[in-house]
Amino acid sequence: MGGTALRRKLAAIVAADVAGYSRLVSHDETATLRKLSAYRQIVDALIDEYGGRIANTAGDSILADFASAIDAVECCVAVQLRLAAAEDDQPEDLALRFRIGIHLGDVVIQGIDLLGDGVNVAARLESIADPGGICISGAVFDQVDGKLGYPIEPLGLQRLKNISRPIEAYKILLRQRSTSPQAENPSSSKFEQQIQYCRSADGVRLAYSVVGTGPFLLKSANWINHLELDWELPLYRHLFVGLSKQHKLVRYDARGNGLSDWDQSELSLDAWVSDMEAVADAAGLIRFPIFGFSQGCAVSIAYAVRHPERVSKLILFGGFATGRFKRPSNTATDLERYKATATLIRLGWSSEDPTFRQMLASQLIPGATKEQAVAFNEMQRRSLSAESAARYYETVSNFDVRDLLPQVSVPTLVLHFREDAMVPIEEGRLIGAKIPNARFVSLPGRTISL
Known about the structure:
The protein is built from 14 helices and 16 strands. The protein has 450 residues and is α/β, with parallel strands linked by helices. Strands 1, 2, 3, 4, 5, 6, 7 and 8 form an 8-stranded mixed sheet that branches. It has an 8-stranded mixed sheet with strand order 9-10-12-11-13-14-15-16, with helices on both faces. Strand 7 (152-158) and strand 8 form a beta hairpin.
């Protein structure tokens, strides 16, 4: 067959273009083209110096690939610093500044061209980068975290044009070079969590952690936690680091999973409220806000009703008042399916074959990348036994806190994704409607209901 053969490889892809290029050309075409030509010589030389390869150029855009993510990022940092120095005396509206996006992913090579999804992601990250800035994906962050002398700020999951799944994004803060251990990097000492232990009223050993600075914020436990593995999980990390920047974040592993006691204890709503009580007391919390997450919303609601004098605010994200088994809309087929899921958890949870855990992850995190799903699957497997997982599923599926909602007396914000695949948005609306003076906000997109 004729034509150029296609090859695939894993690469760090760099996409760059000039911010406001058309406006600059319109203002002074000759000067802009001359400056771009001079700057391209700088950029091309640095790409070569750091071991990269220029795959494509068109007008003001550049596409390059590197064998190493750290080489790609260090090259782009050097580019932006060199060009920033060259433009230092220019008015900001006339400065020629590149925007750069970097992604680590699979690419298709056709001749010298780079094609494929990895290229598209890098190009879309470039589109949200600041002029003179660098935006990287979570896959790149995993490779460079702790190895770069500049703070990295999480931007959260981004919905990028023509990319079907949300992409975890970060930006490199080039004007805030890290010179102390308190730099805003997730790997710095400021974000080193301290794991401690306490006991619940019925003697269950519970693990909890404190990280960050500022007023206390207690995050509820949710569907399967592991204090150490969660902290490294790409799906969670941007959330935890963001919350820790201005708060002393308290997290904990509820009974039955993670670093807390596993199989021998009672699992129930009351038991999980008891866990929250024990952690709040052990951490020295007096009056504090609670961030309830998924199934943790019901626990947070019950705690706030039981201890209104201690809760300053409730933030309830992706929660439900009724578990799967208790929803009025259920059909007989729905109930059979839910019971079959519990059986499959018992039979397939600890298997080396990840098929069942992958199926569950596809429902919990429908927009996850392959790497995120693999990491989440492994976290689930290592965080609790098959029996504990099945008991968790059955206990949560029987939650019903509808009668507690009118008793909540603290300011409450309810957040819910409109296309939540696991928890219908009607559950969020119910919570918002029944809690007095609560504010309900629907968010665009699908969900991470964990």
